[in-house]
Design goal:
heterodimer, A: mainly alpha, ABC transporter involved in vitamin B12 uptake, BtuC, two-stranded antiparallel ribbon, 72% helix, B: 430 residues, Rossmann fold, 2 domains, 18 strands, 37% helix, globular
Amino acid sequence: MVGFEALVRATILGLQFGTTLALLVAGLTLVFGLMDVINLAHGSLYMLGAYFGVTLVDAGGSFWLALVVAPVAVGVVGLLMEVFTLRPLYGREPLYQILVTLGLAFVVEESVKEVWGTSAQNFAAPAVLAGSIDIAGVTYSQYQAFVLLFTTVLVAAIWVGLERTNVGVLLQATAHDPEMVDALGFDVSRVFTGVFAVSAVLAGLAGVLLGPARAVTPSMWFNVVLLAFAIIVIGGLGNFRGAIVASLLVGLLTGYAALLVPSYTELLVFALMAVVLLVRPAGIFGTATGDPG
Amino acid sequence: MIKILDGRDASTESERQHGRAGTTSRGGRSRRAFLASAGTTAALGVAGCLGSGGDTVKVGFAVAQSGAYTLLGESVINGFKLRVEEELDGQLGGRDVEFVSQDTEGDPGTGSSIAQEFITREEVDVIVGSISGAVASAMRPVIEDHVDDLVWLCPVGIGWQWPMDTPTDDVSVSCTSTQFITGDAYYQPSAPMADFAIENLGDSCVLAFADYSAGYQYGGLFRNRFEELGGDIAGEVPVPVGTEDYKPYLQNVDTSADFVFGMFAGSDAINFVKQFHETGLHEELDLSGVGFLAEADALGAQGDAAVGTYSALPYTPGKDTERNQEFVEAYQDVNDREPNVYACTSYDAAQVADTAIEEVGGTDANDIADVIPGIEVDSPRGYFEMTDSMPYHPVQDVDIRRVVATEGDAPPTNEVIDTIERVKAPFDCA
């Protein structure tokens, strides 16, 4: 039988995994919520963050430098992507944006192969965080604990920023009625570009943060983008709060499933997505506007 | 410590008839072995060419050149070409070689149509591939319809499946009369580790494996051998292929066991080993696994987390023999990187083809299939002998390696600490 201690451990691991997921979907859901763009290249931006990390650390820069520079560089890539490929497509059917971002994802994958080669790369976590600590029976490396803390603070900050600041209000207003915001004297296309770049920065940040614990390969974007989409569908497309809660939910589901029925873990996540789509098509936190009915 | 591990325990009908496993004498090498040894063949090859007509040998690579197996596909092509172009003057068995290659994309459907195209339109004499076992399974029926027309060399993917719970003696696999495996036959990187582990790591093991057919097969063969030797499987931890975060799964590892046997490959192996280390499990249990768990390509990315990992594989790039040093240097000169196991098994596929075509004096598939069984090959991994009976695969020594740290910034490397001699997969044909 599964003991109480094992359940506590699964809960902690699940929440930790969920926080990681939240970092990955935060940017994705912002872009969809505001711009109605399903960015299939989001995983590629995450991958670029990890590869920029590899290059910066290899070149003798510290991890901390990479943590600052790589996401900014990814932000620039995101900005160029938005200006040159997405901007001409606003107002058309979503299918165009899906196709262009999927195309970009493949372009990035092939470019990465050209530049960094096909074999897996790696960069080390900072030596300062090499030790390990125990939390409720689970051994964490200090680096893992750092990622957990960093991510929690960052996601909370975005949340508060959206709810409480002027920029947040502007973003919410743009999501609600871009034409009115335009009429009030704000340049909506700049808001879009800014949001897309910020979303790219977040993806790049996730790449640098998770890189040291994972294989950095040209195909790492795919699984990430798949899971991230399941999560934002569960949370309600474009709903920031929903995406964060769904991340934690999927994290917990993975934690418990891995403990109890490991072979069905992936199936359960996508089954949850299917059930949500059937019962609440707009997602757990979605509003009725997304409901085709 | 040297042990003999072979299929004789199995004692099946075919084993008794062809039971050469474990009996090979290293002293009495045959004429074929002489032919296969490196320099000689090249010399004979050139000589043979002068006399014979201009018949060429057409070789088709049906390997993945994109997706997760890109590096493996490249290694297979590079290994084969190294033998042909650098050492045999662009010839196989004294005949000029023409190469064609197509990307299977790791997709069974694509693999099957590439096989079809290679056979009917390209009229290849030899197919080398695939990488993925699933692709090989899809290619098999196509090739079986044309066993008289071509030879099928398999340095990596084989295309076998059986349920995990099958006792090793009862495993029966798909056999094709012109299929020649030059890599491992599932049994070799898995079961020998049980022999090493029971004596050196302990008698209680947690099995962690990629949750798909190859994971079940390698894992099952290890488990069967381990239990046969009196070991106990304390738990099983299946993890979906392509998992990025292993920590939720690693919570299931019973830390009261002595060691973990892991079956993961490619980026899964990197993620598993790094996170096994990160969660502190390495302080409580030893980590062992199939050779792919700590393959040369993965070690760079795994870094120090891999140090101390035990694994079993017929080929180790760091193997300290003259034959291997030669191979490694030649490969590095041409390709600018260290060879991996796939480069070696594909290089050997070229050796097998060369020797066979030389001996037959032509490319008739049936004639070639007649001479390959029993052939002995001077491989960078050491001498191996092709089995006499189907399924044709190498009877070979298996290295037990341990990952050790290197000085400076270089990634850790595998050190051979034991060798299990003359291992043969005790499988029957279905």
